[in-house]
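Protein 1 of 2
SEQ + STRUCT:
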Amino acid sequence: MSDSDAASVRDEQRERQRRRHLLGVKLRALVGDHVGSGSAVGEPLDFAPGSALVTGTHGWVYLDDRPAERLGASLAWALRREVDALHVVAESGTGVLARRAAEFDMPISVWHAHERSLVEAVAEPITPPPAVPEHHEIFRSLIADGGAVPVAEHGVLTGEVRGLEVCRVVDDHHTGATRLEVGVGEHDREAFQMLHGDVPAVESLARVVETVARHRTPGASQHPLNTLAAERLLRWRLEQEPGLVGATHVEPGEPPVRRRNLKDATPCVALGTTDAGEPLVVVCSAGVDLDLVPYAADARLARGGA
């Protein structure tokens, strides 16, 4: 590591420490104002997604980065501390947090931080995802002709190869034209469009499908194309072998919230039917994912608690 790289790492560490200290001060002030001077407020404790402290038998956490995805980490911290109740504080995402928190037996209160006050969060209802626009649906057959599997999520139509997105139907912001862009992720699609814009989309897609399928085959050497969207590769396997989860049929399902991007690992949903003919909701993830259980509870809630 060069001296400049080492200095950059040290600067980042100092910034994280400074941020953690400020969050601790903020949480302690918020909790102190909320519970009043008659209750002892503990000192801030280490908690990677933000800050945490204990007052009596209650645990408090302040979520800083991507709070809607941190309920699992908050619960893990609360269980380690053996608190009787958990209070979750955030400045955004509190509606989703409150909805997911209600699915647990442990007493969990979610608070929206507004200046120096805590306002009890209202659970955000799950709304039906938007349908794919009709002028996008006409590309569904083109995606299939290119060898990809059409997948619709929250009004967006994409094509996947063994769980990895390889194309997407988009509207041009400048011309208003609708087209099928080929590539893995937004930047790859833009580069592919510049290099192969004169090649028919179905031909371009077929080439990409062949390449991706080769790398996402069991036993293939490690490659970015088989490490991306590992949870969706798992879902694809369940589609091929539904008996692994006691089902006779498994297919992709709509997620309870829209996926942020292709790069960050996010659980995915599958819907199926058990051997007994009962509906089944399956949530797939890969690696260590503390928020898997809250996400799965949300996915089940979206299907009426099936």
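Protein 2 of 2
SEQ + STRUCT:
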Amino acid sequence: MKKTELYIKSTNDVNNLHTIVWEPESEIKAIVQISHGMIEYIHRYDRFARFLNSKGILVVGNDHLGHGLTARDDEELGYFPTDKKSATVVEDLYKITQEIKSRYGEEVPYFVLGHSMGSFMIRRYIMTYGDKVDGCVIVGTGSQPNIVLKGGQTVLKFLKAFKGDKHRSKFVEKMAFGTYNKKFKPIDTSCDWISRDKYIVNKYVNDKYCTFLFTLNGYETLFDALEFIQNTKNVEKIPKELPLLFVSGDMDPVGNYGKGVKQIYENYKISGIKDIDIKLYKDGRHEILNELEYENVYNDIYNWLSERIKITQKSF
């Protein structure tokens, strides 16, 4: 396994996207591009990437704007330096796609995978570039009722008028995450909702790249993505032949404990998408790739990918 770090210019023409490529020693059967979640960074997917490498799959992913080593300094963590909001994040993802395809060949089966906020970005990605990839895995996703979304956007607009878009608000953080620990007892940290694996949670809460407050601009970008992907007209833009897999824990508050994920799955089915599957893991919390049963999750994702790799290869 060869691990390479590189920097690719963001489409905002300001930042350099910190990008990691995990390349298998064996022949490359497929490529998986990862879009990480909110308030984390791509290196947290190292264990999963190494697993896929062991199966002959190359993995690539970047730190989004305002995250990890793409942020120019600690002050920029949680801030997206763009006026195009989530559209820039998606264009950055597609720029990575183009770069990797140019290096490894258009003929290699290419999949995208997004977790949490990264799943919102990847859902927007396939509404624009779904014809450029061979499948999509949507992990730890969710939605918000439009009335809640509009209310949140109104609060952000009000606060921004007085505080500016770089302001970090404890009130907004509580509004976004305040109820997520509610169903879990006993609790040791404010982030017990991410996993039952205490090692993962403790590592997370002691990592400066996972503990910063989002700016108002950051929440605007998040809500902008949700507004876009929840628009039925945009859902219709997803290619009907694109294979989709939803993966979540049934105790993930972001996905409304499985109910929200099932609803999105049903909405996508109704839109006419033909090859669509869902896997919900009992007692699994938000970071299902970092849960106690992570090996089962990894194998399920690989088996799904493997079937679609065979189909893609037959078409050449």
